[in-house]
Amino acid sequence: MEWIERAPAKINLTLDVLYKREDGYHELEMIMSSIDLADHLTFTPIEENRIEVYTNKAFLPVDKRNHVHQAIRLVKEQFQIDSGMLVEIDKQIPVAAGLGGGSTDAAATLRALNGIWDLNLNREELIDLGMQIGTDVPYSMVGGTAFVSGRGENVRPIKPMPACWVVLAKPKISVSTKTIFKALEVAQLENYEPQSRIVEAAIEAEDYEEMVRHLSNALEVVTFQRHPYLKNIKERMIRYGMDGVTMSGSGPTILGFSRNYSRAKRVYNSLRGFCEEVYIARTIK
Ligand code: ATP
Predict the structure, then answer these.
(1) Residue from 188, 267, 272 nearest 226 by CA
(2) Distance from CA of residue 49 to its chain's centroid?
(3) How far away, in angstroms, is 16 Cα from ligand 1 center?
(4) pLDDT digits 0-9 by tens, 1-31
(5) Please, which pLDDT band fits residue 191 given cuts at 50, 70 and 90?
(6) Distance from the CA of 102 to the center of ligand 1, in angstroms?
(7) N or C: which terminus of the chain has fewer CB atoms within 10 Å of its end residue's CB?
(8) What is the pTM of this model?
């Protein structure tokens, strides 16, 4: 028996850092949405008590550092399951890019195991399990367009964002989310105005122009300082006529939004000359 799951990437329309909490984590508000750039995972249950993970990307760890491996181990321990699982990850989402690739794979794994091993877990129980793997996993369990807050554990679905094309530019640098948050100084937030509630209202009003006007990411200043080249990509996208441009997660992927396919395609073609990985995707509900 084989079980196949699709694991879509997420994009940030906003990422507001409200303040640093006493426990050292940052209090966040974000609008996230799913796009049709996705990994595909194939699960095959095996009788032996083993976890085997394979992937088409040689640099990706397949041992307990892999989020899929962690999700299977967590479920096996929690529900005392002594058979095993073999998983093949067809990775299409760029890694360490701010697109939640590891988290969406973990969420897909929890969905698959819930079905394969008849766990009968409801959405809240799956979200609780997801939180133990990573802070973006709860959102990935829900998907679509959502208002996400806290460290990422509070996920409130909202109206789907207005449909559009998204051009994604991911230069050949990997960014560690932990490092970027560590480098973020409270002083850098003084002039930062949170935009998530404004973007939420724009989405609820189906006002695309207002939505793209308020795309925003509080971490841009830190990631751009370390990789000034990203600012160049952002400015280029604006010059090429994208309706709105922002960074996803802690970067380095830069997102450009357009309702017009031929414009998005033109920008995609122009960027391919000097950026390592460029994608064109659609928003999905
Ligand atoms: P984060 O915000 O958590 O850093 P991201 O979207 O920027 O997420 P990911 O693609 O999730 O980045 O990769 C982050 C790290 O997780 C990488 O160092 C990668 O090696 C590790 N990782 C573990 N499992 C996976 C997986 N299944 N897919 C992608 N990365 C994974």
Answers:
(1) 188
(2) 31
(3) 21
(4) 899 999 999 999 999 999 888 888 899 999 9
(5) confident
(6) 4
(7) N
(8) 0.95
Identify the weakest region by mean pLDDT among 86-100, 194-208, 271-285: 271-285
With left for phi above 0 and alpha for psi between -120 and 50, is residue 143 left, alpha or beta? Answer: left
Q: Both tokens of residue 162?
A: 């207005």
In this structure, the residue with its CA closest to atom 30 of ligand 1 is 102
Active site residues: 10, 136
* Residue 9, token pair as written in the block: 């990437």
Question: Closest Cα to atom 18, ligand 1: which residue?
Answer: 96
Q: How confident is the model at residue 274 (pLDDT cuts 50, 70, 90)?
A: confident
Q: Which atom of ligand 1 is closest in space to residue 97's alpha carbon?
A: 7
| Structural domains for the chain | 3-157 (3.30.230.10), 165-284 (3.30.70.890)
3-state secondary structure 178-247: HHHHHHCCHHHHCCCCCCHHHHHHHHHCCCHHHHHHCCEECCHHHHHHHCCHHHHHHHHHHHCCCCEEEE
Determine the distance separating the centroid of ligand 1 and the alpha carbon of 269, expressed in angstroms: 27
With tokens 């088409």, the residue in question is 56
- Own/partner contacts of 61-69, CB < 8 Å, gap of 24 or more, are 66/102, 67/102, 67/103, 67/105, 67/106, 67/109, 67/133, 67/134, 67/137, 68/41, 68/105, 68/106, 68/109
Ligand 1 surroundings by CB, under 6 angstroms: 60-61, 65-68, 89, 95-103, 105, 134, 136, 177, 249-250
Whether 96 and 108 have beta carbons less than 8 Å apart is answered as no
**Looking at this protein, which amino acid is placed at residue 33?**
S
Size of the chain, expressed as the number of residues it contains: 285
